[in-house]
Structures are given as structure tokens and as C-alpha cells.
Amino acid sequence: MTGRPADGGADATGPGAGHGAGTTGPGAGRGAGGTGAGRGALLVVGDVVTDVVAVHPEPLAPGTDTAARIRTLPGGAGANAACWAARTGTAEVRLLARVGAESAPWHERALRDAGVRPRLVVDPAEPTGTVVALVGKDAERTFLTDSGASLRLSPADWAPELLDGVAHLHLSGYLFFAGSSRELALVALRAAVARGVPVSVDPASAGFLAALGPGRFLDAVAGAAVLLPNEDEARLLAGLPEPAGVGRAAAALSLRVPLVVVTRGAAGALVAERGRITAEVEAAPAEAVDSTGAGDAFTGGFLAARLGGAGPAEAARAGCRAASAAVTRLGGRPG
To answer: What is the pTM of this model?
Structure first.
């Protein structure tokens, strides 16, 4: 590995607390998510970041103060999805990610407390990634992102035995937006496909997708079985203009990836398979406080249901229930 696995245990209470963090490899002890007896594990490869969430009921006032409620919380698309999968039923959830030494113990403990078995590689040079989420009165958020160590995952951090006992591999789309982490994602995807392990990908960010190029992203995820974009990402990847119906985008993408599930916020989700829409799922009602991590919660709920034997439409309903629960609290993790 190019970094070092976090080592030793710690009762960390904040991002800088503790002196080390334990790493749980694929064959190590049981977490709160269960033993996985009778079915395989979910392996998530993705990002762990520190979220700084600022909820401001009034519009931002340039050049002066704006009152806000501010919290520092564990986050990251991959880590959030793993935590929601563990909460909503997956017997065993594993996570491979890269963090900085300054907050490794805190993140390790938060993941374990959520029932996830983390393998965190401590980066020797970069701190843990940080995302500042500005959340307005409508609960919608704008992100300022410093990826830090999270996108420095590399093929050297991968080991074939990470797939031992795994029934599904999920890749955070953020991995595809930097050279070394994209190489790692491709290694993991190919290894999973070679073993017959299905792979899902969350495209993660319309802004980063536009910079990378939709065609380049779709070529990189060739072989994946499931794609989980939101509406903007689906239109962008399908090459359709803003007014185009998201159903057209979902159907078009499902000719590239067999199962496409498009999240639509308060409008629920669309399921497309092999060129046609097969289900439209309504969102569960919720009083939204913060939409940070809602898509990650959907992903976790969806994957947990699929691993439990649910069909695509039923799994999408489980994802919507998780997403609706997520928006009622600050941050992207379950309580």
C-alpha cells in the first residue's frame, strides 16, 4: 500500500482525537452489521470525508455575517452509503477508503459504531477530505469540496482478498475523477466482474462528470450492472438537454448499463432496464431539514434491499425510505 492502514484502537470524540484507528480487513471480527451468515457481504470502495454542514435559514449576506447552525460530522458518499446499508439490513458491510492521520481514529470509530467494517488507509501526505455543505431554507445544499486523501486511493491499496465473501461491490463515482483513484476503481471493477460479483456505481457529481466527460465516465464503468445517477447526472450522461424528460435519459442509459435507477428527490425514483422504464417509485413523505447525503442514503437502502433478495422496484422503494429518513437530520449518516 502507498499509505499505511490505520492501527490501534481509540476512543475518539472529534476529528482530531485519538492516536490511531483500527483497520478491519475482510477476514477480521464482526461489527454491528451482523455476521453475514447465509449471504455475502457488501463491499463499498469510496470516500470518507469530514463534513462541515452550515444551515442558514436566511440567504447568504456577502461581505458580512449570516447566522447559521454549523456542525462538523463524518461524511463521504461511499462511507454514507455503507452506513445506510448497514442500518437498513445488509448483514455485513465493508468499506475501503483513504483518510488523513489527523482524523483517522474519529472516522474509524464512527464507521464501526454504524456497523461498517472499515479498512482505512492512512495517507502519509494529505489530510482527510473536507466538504463544506451550505444548506439553505429549502434544505437544498451547495458543496465546497477539498478531496484531500480520499481521491489518493491507488491500485496499491487494493488486494484480491478484499472480494472474498463479497456478494456485491459498490464504487463511489468520486473515485473516477482523479487519476490514481480511477485506476483503483478500474482494478476493483475488473476483479469483481472476473469473479462474477455484480458492481454498482453512483456517478456522484454532475459538475465533476462534466469536467471528466460523460463518454469517458461511461467507458470507465463498462461492465457495471447498476448505475445510480440523480436527474442531472442522468441527463448529462445520456447527452440530453435540460428540458428532456428524465425517463428518456434513464432508458437510454440502461442500454449501456443493464439496470439504471435515477433518484429524483421529492419525486421519488425511476427504474430502467434494458432500454425501457420498468417502475416509477414515489418518495416517502418527510419534513426536510438537510438534503446532504440523501442520494447516498438511497444507495445504501437500495443495495441492502437488493442483497436481501428484493427486485429493482422494491429496492428502489427501500432506497426512497432511507433517503426520506436522511433529509430529516443534519449530515449524511443515519442516527
So the answer is: 0.86
